[in-house]
């Protein structure tokens, strides 16, 4: 094969949640991909337990939100309780502003299967080779050569792609071949995770519950498909062997008020928590790390798997633009610049939630937490980036770097649906009751024309429309959001984050903007 011949635009190493999300995102954008996965079947145990409205909005972008919701249940609230039954606090989940419920309980194997089925829509455009391991990854000026070995026959093969996404999770061999070091710590406490099938309802089963205790804190959460999960730490001196059988596990569940009449245990596993991140999320010019290959966090914030899925969508639209010639190669530098601080944020949220659950807060910290009881907890803050491919700084009082809300919207001829379904897959310039094209300078418009942007005036529901380039904000949430940030016109990226706003300049970003 000649160096300039390619089997696909993008090679995906690993086909877990991050890999299959990347496959769907790339396929939706018309980018060809080939994925390599060691296992022939989906891992049949649930690891992640939740997705929120940001992640669900990404599934909507690939047309699979309705399908994945079929195996999920909305999560209404979270609470902290003690073993004597005292409820310390309860936080109801607010209505989502992104077009979906704020949070959903999931059953991960079912969700992954839906995503894999979804990727099959693209036929030969997105291919998957199961039962193969990647034995080498080499890149040159033109692309990446991936060498694989068939695990059944031992036969080797090579594939060429322009870029590669390393989504290999915790697998160490590929990490070592790429020379990737994970910096951070592995916490010294071992955890047992117990999964059960629900036989009957018990009080407040549907509420995400953290059992707060210095010695035996517990995460107690309903999963999709009538499954339930408990994550319980082992005490000093206890080992995996002490909980080898289901009979050994029952005393742990009975201490929480759960009996044989409530569930059947159908599996358990042991895990250690990690707080680690790769030194760089990019190897050379053409290989990018996603998900657990790039970062590991404790489970308390439910953001580990979700962060990998968000990685996939972030890099996918940028690669699509670069491969299609509408975006400069330099935009790929914004992948880590945007995603690393966001993952660091959720990692810190997870660590601090763990301290609350384990009752490790000082009296001063407890008092500060109580004073913030009426505020939206950081776990539920709207999506934002603090730095990246933006014009102007992504400051707290600016629309730049923030994800726009998703109201119900309507086209001029009355087609009603979620906003994203009416905007399309590309860039869009939105004007609050104004044609945004009339606000841009000639140079700014030329720049946005070059990336294929649409121009839409956003009208309120009590207004009429005149031309085809208008959209109606039926709920009024988008218009109120724009006015909250003092923005009359915003340039919205394919991932629905604001790239530019009129208060700080509407030019196409030319590089990476930092937070002020």
Structural summary, described in words:
- This protein is an alpha+beta fold and 516 residues long.
- Among the domains are: 8-60 and 107-180 and 277-357, FAD/NAD(P)-binding domain; 384-501, Glutaredoxin.
- Helices cover 25% and strands 29% of the residues.
- The chain has helices at residues 17-28, 53-61, 65-69, 108-119, 172-178, 246-254, 304-324, 334-357, 363-371, 419-423, 442-450, 477-484, and strands at 8-13, 33-37, 50-52, 73-74, 77-81, 87-92, 103-105, 126-130, 132-139, 144-150, 156-166, 182-198, 208-211, 218-222, 227-233, 263-278, 282-283, 287-289, 295-296, 408-411, 416-418, 428-432, 454-460, 470-473, 489-492, 498-501.
- The strands form 4 sheets. Strands 1, 2, 8, 9, 10, 11, 17 and 18 form an 8-stranded mixed beta sheet that branches.
- Strand 9 and strand 10 (144-150) form a beta hairpin.
- Helix 1 packs parallel to helix 4, helix 1 (17-28) packs parallel to helix 7 (304-324) and helix 7 (304-324) packs antiparallel against helix 8.
- The termini are far apart.
- The model has no long low-confidence stretch (mean pLDDT 92).
Low-pLDDT residue spans: none
Rough outline:
globular
Strands, total number: 26
The main β sheet shows up as:
8 strands, mixed
Structural class: alpha+beta
Q: Helical proportion?
A: 25-40%
CATH architecture of the domain at 8-60 and 107-180 and 277-357: 3-Layer(bba) Sandwich
Q: Specify the number of helices.
A: 12
């Amino acid at each position: 094969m000649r160096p300039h011949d390619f089997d696909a635009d993008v090679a995906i190493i690993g086909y877990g949640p991050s890999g299959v999300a990347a496959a769907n995102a790339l396929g939706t954008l018309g980018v060809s991909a080939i994925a390599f996965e060691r296992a022939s079947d989906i891992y049949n145990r649930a690891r992640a337990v939740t997705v929120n409205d940001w992640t669900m909005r990404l599934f909507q972008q690939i047309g699979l939100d309705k399908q994945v919701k079929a195996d999920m249940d909305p999560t209404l609230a979270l609470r902290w309780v003690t073993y004597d039954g005292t409820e310390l606090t309860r936080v109801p989940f607010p209505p989502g502003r992104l077009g979906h419920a704020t949070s959903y309980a999931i059953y991960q194997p079912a969700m992954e299967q839906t995503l894999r089925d979804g990727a099959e829509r693209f036929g030969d455009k997105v291919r998957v080779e199961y039962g193969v391991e990647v034995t080498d990854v080499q890149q040159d000026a033109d692309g990446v050569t991936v060498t694989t070995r068939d695990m059944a026959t031992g036969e080797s093969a090579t594939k060429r792609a322009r870029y590669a996404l390393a989504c290999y999770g915790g697998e160490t061999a590929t990490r070592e071949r790429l020379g990737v070091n994970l910096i951070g710590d592995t916490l010294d406490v071992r955890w047992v995770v117990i999964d059960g099938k629900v036989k009957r309802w018990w009080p407040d089963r549907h509420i995400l519950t953290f059992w707060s205790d210095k010695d035996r804190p517990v995460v107690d959460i309903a999963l999709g498909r009538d499954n339930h999960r408990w994550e319980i730490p082992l005490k000093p001196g206890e080992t995996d062997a002490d909980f080898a059988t289901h009979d050994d596990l029952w005393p742990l569940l009975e201490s929480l008020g759960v009996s044989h009449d409530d569930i059947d245990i159908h599996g358990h596993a042991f895990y250690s928590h990690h707080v680690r991140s790769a030194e760089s999320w990019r190897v050379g010019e053409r290989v990018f790390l996603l998900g657990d290959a790039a970062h590991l966090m404790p489970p308390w914030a439910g953001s580990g798997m979700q962060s990998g899925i968000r990685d996939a969508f972030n890099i996918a639209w940028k690669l699509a633009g670069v491969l299609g010639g509408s975006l400069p190669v330099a935009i790929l530098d914004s992948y880590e610049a945007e995603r690393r601080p966001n993952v660091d944020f959720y990692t810190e949220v997870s660590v601090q939630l763990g301290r609350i659950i384990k009752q490790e807060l000082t009296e001063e910290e407890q008092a500060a937490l109580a004073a913030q009881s009426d505020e939206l907890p950081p776990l539920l803050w709207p999506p934002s980036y603090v730095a990246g491919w933006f014009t102007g700084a992504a400051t707290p009082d600016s629309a730049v770097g923030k994800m726009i809300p998703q109201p119900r919207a309507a086209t001029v001829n009355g087609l009603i649906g979620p906003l994203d379904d009416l905007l399309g897959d590309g860039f869009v310039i939105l004007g609050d009751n104004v044609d945004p094209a009339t606000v841009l300078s000639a140079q700014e418009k030329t720049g946005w024309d070059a990336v294929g942007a649409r121009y839409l005036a956003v009208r309120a529901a009590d207004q009429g429309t005149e031309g085809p380039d208008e959209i109606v904000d039926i709920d009024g949430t988008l218009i109120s959001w724009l006015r909250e940030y003092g923005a009359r016109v915003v340039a919205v990226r394919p991932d629905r984050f604001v790239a530019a706003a009129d208060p700080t300049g509407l030019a196409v970003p030319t590089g990476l903007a930092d937070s002020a």
